[in-house]
Amino acid sequence: MIFVIVVAIAISGAVIDKFVNPITIAITTTIASLGTSRRSRLNLGSACQAVHLAKAEFYPGSQLQSMDLGLYFAGRRVERAIARITLCKTKRKLRKMKTLPHLFESNRKWAERVSMAEPDFFSSLQAQQSPEYLWIGCSDSRVPANEIVDLRPGELFVHRNVANLVVYSDLNCLSVVQYAVDILRVKHVIVCGHYGCGGVSAAMEDKPHGLVDNWLRHVRDIYHQNRAVLDAIPDIDERKRKLCELNVVTQVGNLANTTIVQDAWRRGQSLVIHGWIYDLGDGILRDMGVSIASCGELESATRS
Ligand code: CO
Fold it and tell me: Active site includes 142?
């Protein structure tokens, strides 16, 4: 609205230059640009520039008159104001990106909620963790370990990677398993895959995905080892689901064959390995029925 009024006044002034005091318009415009809201200032700035350009168009080669100068300086002033506002906005945005304040706010509210419900919760956790379960799952953001089994902090030791793999040369995963089994003495290790796994799907494709293909090679190997079974499934989605299941079964075998688990069983430690799969579609976990609790069970499972 202000934009329209200023343009109207100024253009009228330009046309009937002799009858309107241009300095008055310039001063009014400048004062208005100082006293109005940010949005109005932006409009005024645009208006001043538009009028200045219009004047230059109507009177090519003419000397700048006082109104032109007034409008010009008002425009420049507003331009600088716009630049300052833009810079402030950019700085605020950058600061937000660097500090993610909304997540800290969420964290503070969560901690408050937990403390209200159970005042000793954090102090008791601080003393020691004694989880009963180790979870080896996919990094997929849709499969949050604690949430889908409704366990609280301190109840689940977690390792996640793309496509929930247990690879013998992966020091990260093996270190987690060793710490969980030898130090924390967890009673169960759960390998949990999920249908709709992007890693498993990518491993079935013939196009490159970059570095991650080196990791997914392990899934691709499972695909090739079970090619006859998988290729007999005509539906591609069903085939992917089957590979997700086969992947879980294979990783359970890999885990059971690690020296860490074997040693634990040999010394009589109670430790059960489970293979589960999670369905993103209904949020339900399914047991693959491949649980192993001893070296003997592993041998009989391998023979069958
Ligand atoms: Co996945």
Answer: yes
| Same domain assignment for residues 90 and 152 | no
Active site annotation includes 48: no
HSE value, Cβ hemisphere, 13 Å, CA-based, for 228: 1
Query: What six digits make up the tokens of 37?
Result: 């809201």
Choice among 38, 95, 113, 142 that is catalytic = 142
Do 134 and 281 lie in a common domain? yes
Question: In the 8-state DSSP scheme, what is residue 181?
Answer: I
Asked whether residue 141 falls in the same domain as residue 252, the answer is yes
Regarding whether 228 and 167 lie in a shared domain, the answer is yes
Q: How far is the CA of 140 from the centre of ligand 1 (A)?
A: 5
**How far is it, in rounded angstroms, from Cα 91 to Cα 71?**
30
Q: Which of 48, 173, 192, 197 is catalytic?
A: 197
Distance, CA 39 to ligand 1 centroid (Å)? 47
97 CA to middle of ligand 1, Å? 27
Could you tell me if 44 and 166 lie in one domain? Answer: no
Q: Give the count of domains, the chain.
A: 3
| Residue 140 known to be catalytic | yes
183 and 289 in a single domain? The answer is yes
pLDDT in tens, 249-303: 999 999 999 999 999 999 999 999 999 999 999 999 999 999 999 998 888 776 6
Please say which residue of 60, 80, 99 terminates a domain.
99
Q: Provide the residue type at 140 as one letter.
A: D
Q: Which of 156, 167, 162, 158 lies closest to 140 in space, CA to CA?
A: 162
Active site residue 88: no
The answer to whether residue 173 is catalytic is no
The verdict on 116 and 180 lying in the same domain is no
180 C-alpha to center of ligand 1: Å?
Answer: 23
Ligand 1 ion: Cβ-proximal residues, 5 Å cutoff? 138, 140, 197, 199
Rounded to the nearest 5 percent, the helix, strand and coil shares of the chain are: 60, 10, 30
Per-residue model confidence as pLDDT tens digits over 155-198: 999 999 999 999 999 999 999 999 999 999 999 999 999 999 99
Domain that holds residue 134: 130-303
